[in-house]
Amino acid sequence: MQETIFDVDTGKGFNLSAALYLKPNVPDEGIVIMCHGLLNNRFSKTLLGIIEGISYHALSVDFQGNGLSGGTTSYGNNEEEVENIRCIVSYVRKKLNRKVLCICGHSKGAADVLLYASKYNDVPLIVSLSARYDHTQIPPNRFTPEQFEELQRKGSFVWVKYDNREYVIRQEDIKQITSLDMSVVKNIDKQKIRVLTVHGSKDKVIPVEDAYIFDKLLGPEPYHKLVIVQDAGHLYYDNMNHQKIMVEAINSWLDENKSWSLNESSDI
């Protein structure tokens, strides 16, 4: 597998770091763009396992303020990350002169790819891996009582130090994330886009019930397929069998839908 690392100019004063993985003996049927989750980067073990396991060329990206990318990140900046995806999609089409077959995201990145699809409707295949639907409440135990107290007192607190940066949580970040409305996935054009949702039945970070809500909004097949990986948690790679089932589900779904995507869908 040939890896090429490069930067993409966002036009907003910073670059995104990305890596293109071209595989030998793989037909040039388009690129699968990989999007990482919260407090992660393009070296995510979950995403690297997918890149290695699927029979397609792939591209992974560090969202702004993460990994080797410039810019800043925040807790509720999904819309900024959607525009990061837009930059990468444009780069693949205009600079690499290749089609974008699919966008695949994990966790926060999965919410991002669904938001991207609902806004732009221009990439035929979307893989949502363990996406959160209900953002109205901050997950229990995410922040300590002391951190919440500091938030009320100072308006912000340092959550963690990540990628040699301080990850700051602000009052406006909490308001932004808790107002995120994932019901916009109903705007995804079923004639142009098909979606695969994969979720672990024992995910303790994002409940599996969220996957069933997405299924109601996006289904039925062939517009949306739901795969529940029994006994799997949020990260998959901590169990080789769960990781294998997840990767095989994605690869087989891409195989099933690639002809439709390349022949029937527009790639603007």
Would you tell me which CATH topology of the largest domain applies?
Rossmann fold
Mean pLDDT: 95
Profile the largest sheet.
8 strands, mixed
Q: Number of DSSP strands?
A: 10
Gyration radius, to the nearest Å?
18 Å
Summarize the amount of helix as a percent range.
Answer: 25-40%
Strands in their spatial order, largest beta sheet: 1-2-4-3-5-6-9-10
- What's the architecture of the largest domain in CATH terms? 3-Layer(aba) Sandwich
Q: Which CATH top level class of the largest domain fits?
A: Alpha Beta
Low-confidence stretches: none
Characterize the structure shown.
This protein is of the alpha/beta class. The chain folds into two domains: 217 residues, 3-Layer(aba) Sandwich (Rossmann fold), CATH 3.40.50; 44 residues, no CATH class. It is 34% helix and 24% strand. It has seven helices and ten strands. The chain has an eight-stranded mixed sheet with strand order 1-2-4-3-5-6-9-10, sandwiched between helices. A two-stranded antiparallel ribbon has the order 7-8. Helix 1 packs across helix 7 and helix 2 crosses helix 3.
